[in-house]
Amino acid sequence: MKNRAVLPDMRAVNVFIEIMQSGSLTITAEQLGIPKSTLSRRITQLEERIGQPLLRRESNRLIPTQAGHIFAEYCQQFIELAQQSQQALEALQLEVSGELNFTFHNAFTCSWLCDKVETLLNAHPKLLLKMRTGFSLPQAATGESVILWLGKVSENGLRHECLGHLSQGIYANPKYLQQTGAISHPQQLMEHEWVDTLEQLTDALVLQHSQEKSVKLPARASRIQADQFVMQADAIIRGKGLGLYPNWLAELKKYHEPQSLQHVLPAWSGPSLAIWLMYPYGHLSRRTRVFIDHLKADLPASWSH
């Protein structure tokens, strides 16, 4: 016997359950307001799909066969699942309104987040979103709040969910490299001025390569230390030196300004930065859940895990 994919019609399933309960095509037809011929045709089609008779006549009543009894148990689950899915779909149409606080790392002050927020607010015009950017990780605040953060985090009273990581590379302005000469090895980076963010000041910089040994560069004072990636990129573009910068942000920058940044030593990568989504523990309001789901949907492919 060939295996068959059983995907019964919902109308036929409902008819089958009703006939099982009434034991009569006539009574069921009256209850549902459907002609007996239609009911009979749906049962016949259902039995053909199943490949076995589901009902038999006994003493002027229709009663389920052994296959009918087994199938009926799954039909009840099928009906309940259909009802649950309908309820879930209807819930999507419920109005999302009220105020929600959203704090995000300044690295996300870019077109990606702007597009995300715009599509969300267009879909839910009564949602009020209070947006704040920063460089220091905020603590849990009163009211409903969601945080999108980058890099190292500590306990702040909220649930932490990692969405991925941003790889980092060394970047410079193409004109700067024309003036100073090409860079072929990480050790040459020590000959250049450095543009850094306050968050990434470390004792040393470790660069990784897929086929070569990692290189550890000693700490070097940065002439310009910005507290925002936007300011760091602007300083690099103005030719103030080299900088360790997230590749995702660099690609966004180069999309709008093609000649702004050049990836130096692209085979070498710096430490990656974790992307964190933070929100309250326990029950979440509908607006918070909708906002979180919207942020997590269609994440950039470069946010690799």
Give an overview in words:
The protein is of the alpha+beta class. It has 3 domains: about 10-90, Winged helix-like DNA-binding domain superfamily/Winged helix DNA-binding domain (Arc Repressor Mutant, subunit A, Orthogonal Bundle), CATH 1.10.10.10; about 100-155 and about 280-295; about 165-275, 3-Layer(aba) Sandwich (D-Maltodextrin-Binding Protein, domain 2), CATH 3.40.190. Helix content is about 35%, strand content about 25%. Strands 3, 4, 5, 6, 8, 9, 11, 12 and 13 form a 9-stranded mixed sheet that branches. A two-stranded antiparallel ribbon has the order 1-2. A two-stranded parallel sheet has the order 7-10. Helix 1 crosses helix 4. The radius of gyration is 31 Å and the shape is elongated.
How many strands?
Answer: 13
**Beta-strand content bin:** 25-35%
Q: Quote the distance from N terminus to C terminus.
A: 45 Å
Q: Which architecture of the largest domain per CATH? A: 3-Layer(aba) Sandwich
Point out poorly predicted stretches. none
Instruction: Specify the overall morphology.
Output: elongated
What is the chain-wise order of helices and strands? Answer: HHHEEHEHEEEHEEEEHEHEEH
Overall average pLDDT: 87
Largest sheet: 9 strands, mixed
CATH class of the largest domain, anyone? Alpha Beta
Helices and strands: which structural class?
alpha+beta
Radius of gyration: 31 Å
- Helix % is 25-40%
Number of structural units classed as domains: 3
CATH-assigned fold name of the largest domain: D-Maltodextrin-Binding Protein, domain 2
Count the DSSP helices: 9
